[in-house]
């Protein structure tokens, strides 16, 4: 299938491939007014993921999210047109580690923007269910957007069978078991990223953490508690605690 140069929907022209995920290929595109867009193209057999992302991503109005603008098709494959998120994925942006030592203010801005996005989604009764570096697009100064809603769903959405939804190292214990997920499950992923920012590495559950004097350490431990009932559930409260602790000296 020739993709570059293809025109889909209401005059959206695909320009170049940006990357490939587990469910779709993502292209940079421009609309008929010359505005930059992202286009996600799904194989036809993964149409349910396109349907889910459209259902949960259309109509989002928060500045820290990249909403779905339209559902269309490229030949026989479902495609979504989205607001373009400028920047790099989180791990590409923060190559100097630990990020909270190398670029503290920028990384704190990224974390607050991520929590802003989650607060909005949770307020709509949704959970993202795939908090990971590839889904956080960061600009040079640290401003960030949360993208990709093809695994998103209603909070505590009942599942016919235990279904593991999410990505590897960032899965909460309940997500790894295939249990329904709530806001505390998304915030577990935030905690994993915060720990990466503190320590410069992803720690496996139960692994002894390197010694650190970072005042954000208690928040990291709180967000990654194995018992979901002991974890924070309010993204706005976590944001406030993050900013308060960040004022303390290292």
From TrEMBL:
PROSITE patterns on file: PROTEIN_KINASE_DOM (PS50011), PROTEIN_KINASE_ST (PS00108)
Which InterPro entries does the record associate with it?
Kinase-like_dom_sf, Prot_kinase_dom, Ser/Thr_kinase_AS
Q: Which Gene3D superfamilies match?
A: Transferase(Phosphotransferase) domain 1
Q: Which UniProt keywords apply?
A: ATP-binding, Kinase, Nucleotide-binding, Transferase
**Source organism superkingdom:** Bacteria
Where is each Protein kinase domain found? 12-250
* SUPFAM superfamilies xrefs: Protein kinase-like (PK-like)
> Which GO MF terms are attached to this record?
ATP binding; protein serine/threonine kinase activity
Secretion signal span: none
What name is this protein filed under? Serine/threonine-protein kinase-related protein
Protein's organism: Deinococcus gobiensis (strain DSM 21396 / JCM 16679 / CGMCC 1.7299 / I-0)
């Amino acid at each position: 299938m020739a993709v570059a140069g293809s025109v889909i929907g209401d005059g959206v022209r695909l320009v170049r491939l940006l990357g490939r995920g587990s469910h779709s290929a993502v292209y940079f595109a421009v609309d008929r007014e010359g505005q930059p867009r992202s286009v996600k193209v799904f194989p036809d057999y993964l149409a349910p993921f396109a349907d889910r992302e459209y259902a949960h991503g259309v109509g989002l109005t928060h500045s820290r999210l990249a909403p779905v603008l339209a559902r269309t098709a490229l030949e026989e494959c479902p495609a979504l047109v989205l607001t373009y998120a400028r920047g790099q994925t989180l791990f590409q942006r923060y190559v100097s580690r630990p990020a909270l030592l190398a670029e503290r203010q920028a990384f704190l801005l990224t974390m607050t923007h991520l929590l802003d996005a989650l607060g909005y989604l949770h307020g709509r009764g949704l959970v993202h269910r795939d908090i990971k570096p590839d889904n956080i697009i960061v600009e040079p100064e640290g401003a960030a957007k949360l993208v990709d809603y093809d695994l998103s769903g209603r909070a505590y959405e009942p599942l016919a069978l235990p279904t593991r939804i999410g990505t590897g190292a960032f899965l909460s214990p309940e997500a790894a078991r295939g249990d329904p997920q709530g806001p505390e499950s998304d915030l577990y992923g935030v905690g994993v990223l915060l720990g990466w920012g503190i320590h410069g590495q992803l720690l496996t559950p139960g692994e002894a953490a390197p010694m650190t004097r970072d005042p954000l350490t208690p928040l990291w431990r709180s967000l990654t508690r194995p018992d979901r009932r002991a974890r924070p559930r309010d993204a706005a409260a976590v944001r406030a605690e993050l900013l308060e602790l960040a004022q303390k000296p290292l």
